[in-house]
Amino acid sequence: MAGQGDGRMDTARPGILVMGAGGHGKAVLDLLMAGGAWRIAGVVDDAPRLAEVLGVPVLGNDAAFAGLRAAGVAAAHPAIGHNAQRIAAAARLLAAGFALPALVHPAAILGRGATLGEGAAVLARAVIGPEARIGRLALVNTGAIVEHDCDLGEGAHVAPGAVLAGGVRIGAGAMVGAGAVIRPGVVVGAGAIIGAGAAVLADVPPGATFAGVPAQNLHPETSP
Q1: pLDDT tens by residue, 6-23
Q2: Which keywords are on file for this protein (predicted)?
Q3: Is the pTM higher than 0.90?
């Protein structure tokens, strides 16, 4: 992969750093390689355990930031699946002077008028409906469907294969599990967790955990 992870090559394309050498980091690298618009400058990780990921060198931890910025790498992406950790990583990247562009896999579909916030990511085969809003640092994972007029808050995560029908609102930092389905117009509160395969038919309070078909509150005693 000539040019991947080597700041001396392929300078016609802008460089981007990927933060996170785990499974989601691998998915983001795959997105960038498929798209071709970016030159991948390397990967950093809080606790590097690998020399490379998908052939891209792991450059160490945050200590590599200054050298990458000096080499002209101006963009980065926090490729971390855990919502709170992704938001914290983004803050460190911004403090180091990196821009956080939104990333869209070329195999994803974006409807007319859909918008993506800073650092958002839309992975392969995901579908974003018309006039949906994907918030800052939100993640729409592989094969998920976010229908028309949905609104994903900052740092929310829609896991693989989940379906959000029209007009659903997902609060900041909320997690929608793999294969979950949310009925039109439902509001999922900030920090809530929707279990894998759940069928959500009514609003979910902030911070609650709902699972099952139909979805039920697993800890009603802690709900406001």
Answers
A1: 444 566 899 999 999 999
A2: Acyltransferase, Repeat, Transferase
A3: yes
